[in-house]
Amino acid sequence: MIDLSRPALDVAPHLLGAIIRHGPVSVRITEVEAYMGLVDPASHAFNGPGGRAAVMFGPPGRLYVYLSYGIHHCINVICSPDGVASGVLLRAGEVVGGNQIVRDRRGPKAPDRKLASGPGNLGQALGVELADSGMALALDGFAPPTDGTSSDWSLEAPSAPVAARITTRIGISKNAETPWRFIIPGEPTVSGRRH
DNA sequence: CTTACGATTGCCT
DNA sequence: GGCAATCGTAAGG
């Protein structure tokens, strides 16, 4: 069981190899980035708990979903204790369940390895919407909460430790030199640069 | 109220 | 490698 009440920077490498599921679709995570809230100018939570990132200041184990460039819905797993903001952006993965549904969502032109490669593509593969922001993940088969934050999302820790390579984050202008991106070496589903 | 901007992607040259 | 698409937010008047 992954302890999501720790800071995102500590949690991020442990999410590599984990399985996130939404309904019939399951994805094995191969690329993530940590966003560290109030101490990270690149984080949507940098300016405090107002606005779209307010949910990041809530309890860990929920989703923070945002719209990128008016088109793409990107998924974060919220970390740190209630009242502290940090989160892990899920950037890429390998589709391991619901392959036909993902193919229908992503269209016929996408190569298999790109079905969930890149944060927008991963979100589309999992069928995430803005309304999923704040929803709770059921962890490792444990029952989801009964407080209204439950939907059909779950997260399973990897069965064995997974190798991680650390790099700088992708697509940001602030705090861009900080090495808070984690990838599984050699994974063909990783988006962007591999070092 | 008005305007500018992305934690991106895919198509074009 | 360059760049347009597209819309919820955030910033500005």
From TrEMBL:
The keyword DNA repair appears for this protein: yes
InterPro entries with a match to the protein in the record: Formyl_transferase-like_C_sf, MPG, MPG_sf
Keywords from the UniProt entry: DNA damage, DNA repair, Hydrolase
SUPFAM superfamilies (UniProt xref): FMT C-terminal domain-like
Enzyme category, top tier: hydrolase
EC number(s) on file: 3.2.2.-
Pfam families: Pur_DNA_glyco
Gene3D superfamilies in alphabetical order: Methylpurine-DNA glycosylase (MPG) (3.10.300.10)
GO process terms (BP): base-excision repair
Statement: the UniProt record of this protein carries the keyword Transmembrane: no
Superkingdom, natural source: Bacteria
A GO molecular function held by the record: alkylbase DNA N-glycosylase activity
NCBIfam families registered for this protein in UniProt: 3mg, PRK00802.1-3
Family recorded in the similarity comment: Belongs to the DNA glycosylase MPG family.
Protein's UniProt name: Putative 3-methyladenine DNA glycosylase
